[in-house]
């Protein structure tokens, strides 16, 4: 079962579609990294999943049920979310903010639950200080705490690392992973901090101009971002067959122009020696290093060209 399945989603404001023909599949148990440029439609998609915004077209299923079905809807009862700015009452303390929401949700043992979550997000020492005096990072952590109050099965976080210092960023990443591994919470994280996503997500979705460009596993991303070696010879088919035989643990791709791209556990010097031993006429032997940021930028730019 999918935690989220979006089919043909569209959202228009004033005749302009900010999301159009969008589809998405988040597997139950995923930590899903949702990647896209500012204005690509990430927050709008999250708002449609959580029933904060009605779609113009299409359907969203949350754990197999329409998100907009009934009252309260499945999204309201099983989903926690921090989208854009946290909904914090500035005149109240962190604890009082938690208690207001806990009582509104009818949570049993509201005091104990509020204190527990404040410990999780690192705000148990905030005392009676009013939330309006919090740093941006503290407000962000309180917003995440509020999202966790109802013990959600699905947690959506929109740029949760904003305003956090390196220690706070590490603590939040570890919290997300603990919620996922220990409590089975499916988490969707929209973030520009790709280094943090790379350390925790299991699958990615890339959005450009309101459309899903590509969904892929973390392993597929790591493979795509790994170093590669481009080989061109005068007899590419023969060269490919011989290299595959000599380097069985590597991955090979023949590009339309005859370039052989090698990835995986290769050493450029070993490949060069093999080509000499094969008496191949080498036209090109180039090693390429690509990081995760470059990879996603390429996907987003490619997606925009096809929108």
Automatic annotation (TrEMBL):
Every ABC transporter domain range: 4-234
PROSITE patterns in alphabetical order: ABC_TRANSPORTER_1, ABC_TRANSPORTER_2
SUPFAM superfamilies: P-loop containing nucleoside triphosphate hydrolases
SMART domains, per database record: AAA
One Pfam entry name: ABC_tran
Family the entry assigns: Belongs to the ABC transporter superfamily.
Protein name (Swiss-Prot/TrEMBL): ABC-2 type transport system ATP-binding protein
Organism of origin: Parvibacter caecicola
């Amino acid at each position: 079962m999918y935690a989220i399945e979006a089919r043909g989603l569209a959202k228009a404001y004033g005749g302009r579609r900010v999301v159009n023909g969008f589809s998405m599949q988040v597997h139950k148990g995923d930590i899903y990294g949702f990647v896209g440029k500012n204005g690509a439609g990430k927050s709008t998609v999250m708002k449609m999943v959580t029933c904060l915004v009605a779609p113009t077209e299409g359907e969203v299923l949350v754990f197999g049920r329409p998100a907009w079905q009934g009252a309260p809807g499945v999204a309201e009862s099983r989903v926690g979310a921090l989208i854009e700015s946290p909904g914090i009452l500035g005149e109240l303390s962190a604890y009082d903010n938690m208690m207001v929401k806990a009582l509104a949700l009818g949570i049993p043992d509201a005091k104990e639950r509020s204190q527990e979550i404040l410990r999780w997000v690192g705000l148990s020492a905030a005392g009676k200080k009013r939330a309006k005096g919090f740093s941006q990072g503290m407000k962000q952590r309180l917003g995440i705490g509020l999202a966790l109050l109802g013990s959600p099965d699905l947690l959506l976080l929109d740029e949760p690392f904003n305003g956090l210092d390196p220690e706070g960023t590490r603590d939040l990443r570890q919290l997300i992973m603990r919620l996922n591994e220990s409590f089975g919470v499916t988490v969707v994280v929209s973030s520009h901090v790709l280094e943090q996503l790379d350390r925790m997500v299991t699958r990615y979705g890339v959005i450009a101009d309101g459309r899903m460009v590509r969904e892929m596993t973390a392993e597929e991303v790591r493979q795509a971002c790994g170093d590669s070696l481009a080989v061109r010879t005068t007899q590419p088919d023969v060269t490919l067959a011989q290299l595959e035989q000599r380097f069985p643990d590597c991955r090979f791709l023949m590009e339309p122009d005859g370039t052989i791209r090698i990835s995986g556990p290769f050493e450029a010097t070993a490949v060069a020696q093999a080509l000499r031993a094969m008496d191949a006429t080498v036209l090109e032997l180039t090693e390429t290093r690509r990081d995760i940021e470059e990879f996603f930028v390429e996907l987003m730019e490619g997606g925009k060209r096809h929108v």
